[in-house]
Specification:
It contains 13 helices and no strands. With 313 residues, it is mainly α. It has a domain of 126 residues. α8 crosses α10. The protein is globular. It starts with a helix and ends in a 6-residue tail after the last helix. Keywords: Membrane, Transmembrane, Transmembrane helix, Transport.
Length: 313
């Protein structure tokens, strides 16, 4: 895919005319915050997939390498392909994603654009499948907090079908001004994820420093319980503190108006949620959790030993 889109990029740069550059309109906090918020929302939205991938990493891998390679993969691909898409939009009349790839690719040599468009479809479908599966897991986890769900294949299929139906219904109600609707969606996703991300990061790096009683996470009456009231309080404080600084097409908070429409809610939410959670966790029972971690590690060793096939005598 990388090689294919590299050739598509070369074809676009050599065959399309993007027109003249837009005159410099000067710096605007409102424009900067919108662009920065969209970029932050794109990156932070990946946080919900972290556990799905990090569970397969070797235990000795450094945090710096994980963060660096994850950011490089997420940011560089976005910068490259979003810039390419913007170029398509300015140079092609009535562009669409697949049609633009096909048209530009065929400028390289006959049939290449069709090939590039065809192999783009499975990639798009795989991303949609991951999104649906991730949404199902999130929904199941939320429901499991109130009523235990047995993770059967049937339950997962039903969950995915329900999520797909909800997504389809929402897609049908999107107004004609799609770009504005999409921007609002990205911003709303950012608003809901910011306090959650702050709590997770502070808990991992400053509170528990990466040490958890893994088996207790799956126990309703374990040391972590069903809900973390500290996390919920920190989330609520950060989320409601963000509201005065929110800027969307349908709502603009008083704080955002005061600074000319700039949206700094993400900074407010990150800071307050993180600080509040850190303060609320100062009285955690460290000794009890340390004992639970020791027991959990013993249980994990027993499970690993039980799953390891014995060598033939």
């Amino acid at each position: 895919m990388v090689a294919v889109f590299l050739l598509v990029t070369i074809a676009a740069l050599t065959s399309l005319d993007g027109g003249s550059a837009i005159p410099d309109a000067g710096f605007s906090w409102a424009s900067f915050s919108i662009a920065f918020g969209a970029a932050a929302g794109y990156q932070i939205s990946y946080a919900v997939y972290v556990s799905d991938y990090s569970r397969y990493l070797p235990p000795g891998v450094s945090a710096r390498r994980v963060i660096g390679w994850t950011y490089a993969g997420a940011a560089l691909s976005a910068i490259w392909l979003m810039a390419l898409g913007a170029f398509f939009g300015s140079a092609i009349e009535a562009p669409d994603a697949i049609g633009s790839i096909q048209q530009v690719g065929n400028e390289m040599f006959g049939g290449f654009g069709t090939f590039a468009a065809v192999i783009s479809v499975p990639a798009l479908l795989s991303i949609m499948a991951i999104n649906l599966y991730g949404a199902m897991l999130t929904g199941a986890s939320a429901v499991d907090g109130f009523r235990q769900i047995k993770p059967t294949v049937r339950a997962r299929i039903i969950g995915i079908v329900v999520i797909a139906a909800i997504v389809y219904a929402i897609a049908l109600t999107i107004p004609e001004n799609y770009l504005s609707s999409f921007n609002n969606f990205v911003l709303m996703m950012l608003y809901f994820l910011i306090p959650w991300t702050a709590v997770n990061l502070v808990d991992f790096y400053f509170v528990r420093r990466g040490h958890y009683a893994i088996t207790d996470i799956f126990k309703p009456h374990g040391i972590y319980g069903l809900w973390s009231w500290r996390g919920l309080v920190a989330y609520a404080v950060g989320f409601f503190a963000m509201m005065p600084f929110i800027t969307t097409s349908f709502f603009e908070g008083p704080g955002a108006k005061a600074i000319g429409g700039g949206d700094i809610s993400f900074a407010v939410g990150l800071f307050l949620s993180g600080v509040v959670y850190w303060l609320l966790t100062r009285n955690l029972d460290r000794e009890a959790e340390a004992a639970a971690i020791t027991i959990s590690e013993s249980e994990l060793v027993k499970l690993e030993t039980a799953d390891t096939p014995s060598s033939p005598s």
